[in-house]
Write a structure and sequence with these properties.
Blueprint: E1 2-6, H1 13-22, E2 26-30, H2 41-46, E3 54-56, E4 62-64, H3 66-76, H4 91-113, H5 125-149, H6 162-172, H7 177-181, H8 185-194, H9 198-207
Parallel strand pairs: 1-2
Antiparallel strand pairs: 1-3, 3-4
Helix pairs in contact: 1-3, 1-6, 1-9, 4-5, 4-6, 5-8
Amino acid sequence: MYKLYWSQGTASLAPQVILEETGVDYEMVLIDMAKSEHLTPEYLAINPFGKVPALMLPGGIVMTEAAAICLYLIEQHNLKHLAPTVKSYSRAQFLQWLMYLTNTIQENYKRYYYNNRFLPKGGDKEGIREIAIKDLIEFWKPIDDALAKSDGDFMLGQKISLLDIYLTMLVTWFQPMDELTSMYPALKQCFDECNKHPSVIKSMHVHG
């Protein structure tokens, strides 16, 4: 059985949605980061990086990195509806946008939430956060543009994929969400449609 180590407000949401899509049994293990449970010797023995999510595979191997976990599960369980096959023409676009979400948008949220990490002691935390907000809004524009040009509500057209699940998770990190989605109608449409998907509904409920 899979075991997903997770915490609210983290990148654990997307892997849970994919686990739901597999239809297999899995266990959720809550790691309370507010209580620094991710830094305990017990958890560090599972994931030396001290982060969530982490996925323990049935054989005992532990995977980290949310996007990698999602791709592994999709390939392991042949969830072709969530990602183009390796030889598919749309695979290139799929990989491009997935890396953009993880490397550009997701990475920038660190300055948004952990601005103290990017400053010398006594630096302007709010100034860093304001720049992060400005950059995030700018970085979301190519996603909205791509969605506006799509032949459906989703990044790859008329069917939901990992891209839409992952961007939905990242949209929830922007507070207030309405401030972001009101700027980008195609993004809002995708987000709203994703939130009608059964696996997303169940996972959102868990994550609050």
